[in-house]
TrEMBL record:
It comes from Streptomyces graminofaciens. This is Polyamine aminopropyltransferase. It is found in: Cell membrane. Its EC number is 2.5.1.16. It comes from the Bacteria. It is a multi-pass membrane protein. It holds the Pfam family Spermine_synth.
Length: 543
């Protein structure tokens, strides 16, 4: 039942009084109940989208800073869902003051969610390291933010139900269906907006701050615009000041975010950062390379090139495979930096080198950056080198020519990174075997043998399960200062590898070996047997 409340000023729309749920009080509205109900559901839609963006932001940043995206996603999702349940229970006490409670919760959620990425990155940059202590401490911070955001998101639902019932009484089942429909559709929009709009256009930090701003504006406008008569004058003033403070803090952070990111990047990589860019696939950072300083290339925070001794790693990766037989046709999977191609081109008799790289930004940098192109010997200027922009797994499956290559070099990220485990799977090696010639060789880096013994021999077992004969080897014996190779820290005091292991493989009927290759030590006698292979549905690598 709708009743005009009080005479309205000339030209102003009349307020509307509605009968709400029993015991729920009555709402005095500046618009008709149907419009008010639509506005509340629209607010639910926006708040749900913001909530999911916060969740995805935590997962993405934690995966980048800590690694192992499956673990980080599991931590965030499980803690957040648990906290939502606790928040829903706690919100029952706020139902008598639902409008004020919802406004306060949205302001807190906007501030905590909007600043969560900044806080995590700041903790990583100024208090963390690349070693084990950060991984443990960062998970505590990740859990704290997941818990806080989950509590606030969970508290929204009971209060929104109360507000909808105060607008217009309806059966509980219908009200819950409408509320959850708006919530789930909003989550869909937020889930799609994060990877396709916010992350590529704004980045993680600015994207989170913008989401917090939208959250605060919508939450504040909903309460102060529709339900201001449910609030005392003091409560209205307090809520206005709170939202203005939150918006001011988010705006100040957004203005300073570029300076913050530069300072944090210097804290992480040192003061010698020359290039820092997001390619749409990963973050690429180049340090050094001028005035006699060694060049380093980081991809998503992990060291891929150390100019001090990267030649040792690339030579160990490339030369045993090239020296084992014919090598006129060579396939490099990964290796967009051009360094593996450089080593391949050192051998006589090479007619063609195909480089399959997923990130064109890395290839462009390898062509155009003076220091990096000098380091790779201007390999991409050689007419024999052809670049194919594609995911290595998909290219081998759908495009790769059969039995076309004498040598296949897998210059890929570390197997312990969740996104890379498919490139170290039995299925991947089975596909790679199909492009090998009858006497072809395939070589894979398998990580430091001394510190990741299980991972190394799992790579070997996976290659053998794909029907390939293997010859495992390593370079050096705890060589001082050895840091080159994928995904390792440049700090030799915090977990840098003291050796590096590789596996050379060939078709089942062929003979492969590394005898006579300078600097290479065969380790066939140390083989660990009985390990199960890693597959797409059962990855067995851990970072």
């Amino acid at each position: 039942m709708i009743e005009p409340h009080a005479p309205a000023p000339p030209g102003a729309p009349p307020p509307w009084r509605t009968r709400g749920a029993p015991g729920g009080g009555q709402a005095w509205l500046p618009v008709r109940p149907g419009v008010a109900r639509f506005l509340v559901l629209a607010g639910v839609f926006v708040c749900a989208a913001c909530g999911l963006v916060y969740e995805l932001e935590l997962v993405a940043l934690a995966s980048y800073l800590i690694g192992d995206s499956v673990t980080q996603a599991s931590v965030v999702l499980s803690v957040m869902v648990f906290a939502m349940g606790i928040g829903s229970l706690a919100a029952k006490r706020l139902r008598p003051r639902a409008a004020l409670g919802f406004g306060a919760i949205e302001a807190a959620l906007a501030l905590i969610g909007g600043c969560s990425a900044l806080a995590l990155y700041a903790a990583f940059a100024w208090t963390g390291d690349w070693g084990g202590m950060w991984a443990s401490g960062s998970r505590y911070l990740l859990v704290a933010f997941s818990l806080a955001i989950g509590l606030l998101i969970g508290a929204e639902v009971p209060l929104l139900m109360e507000l909808i019932q105060r607008i217009r009484r309806q059966d509980p089942a219908g009200m819950v269906a409408d509320l959850f429909a708006a919530d789930y559709v909003g989550a869909l929009v937020g889930g799609l907006a994060f990877p396709f709009l916010l992350l590529p256009w704004l980045g993680q930090l600015t994207g989170a701050l913008l989401t917090g701003t939208v959250n605060a504006l919508v939450g504040g406008a909903l309460v102060l615009g529709l339900f201001h008569r449910d609030l005392s004058r003091r409560s209205r003033l307090l809520l206005v000041l709170t939202n203005l403070t939150v918006l001011g803090l988010l705006a100040a952070a957004a203005v300073q975010v570029d300076d913050f990111e530069r300072a944090a990047r210097r804290a992480v990589y040192g003061r010698d950062v020359r290039v820092a860019l997001h390619t749409g696939i990963q973050e690429v950072v180049l340090t050094g390379g001028t005035d006699g300083r060694p060049l380093s290339l980081f991809l998503d925070g992990r060291l891929r090139i150390s100019g001090r001794d990267e030649h040792r790693y690339r030579r160990a990766l490339v030369h045993p495979a090239m020296a084992g037989g014919p090598h006129a046709r060579v396939l490099v999977l990964g290796g967009g930096d051009g360094l593996a191609a450089r080593e391949v081109l050192r051998h006589e008799g090479v007619h063609r080198v195909d480089v399959v790289e997923i990130d064109p930004g890395v290839v462009r940098l390898a062509r155009e950056d003076p220091a990096l192109s000098r380091l790779n010997g201007h390999a991409y200027d050689d007419d024999r080198v052809r670049v194919i922009t594609a995911d290595s797994f998909a290219w081998l499956r759908h495009v790769g020519p059969r039995a076309a290559y004498d040598v296949v070099i897998c210059d890929l990220p570390d197997p312990g990174i969740t996104a890379s485990t498919k490139l170290y799977s039995q299925e991947f090696y089975g596909l790679a075997a199909t492009v090998l010639a009858d006497e072809g060789r395939l070589v894979v880096h398998a990580g430091p043998l001394s510190s990741r013994h299980h991972v190394f021999w799992t790579v070997d077992a996976t290659l053998r399960a794909a029907g390939l004969r293997t010859a495992p080897y390593r370079i050096g014996t705890r060589a001082p200062g050895f840091v080159a190779g994928p995904d390792r820290t440049a700090d030799t005091t915090t977990g840098a590898p003291q050796d590096w292991g590789f596996v050379l493989a060939g078709p089942g009927g062929s003979a492969v070996g590394v005898a006579g290759v300078p600097g290479v030590v065969g380790i066939e006698a140390d083989r660990v047997t009985g390990l199960p292979p890693s597959t797409l549905v059962h990855p067995r690598y851990a970072d």
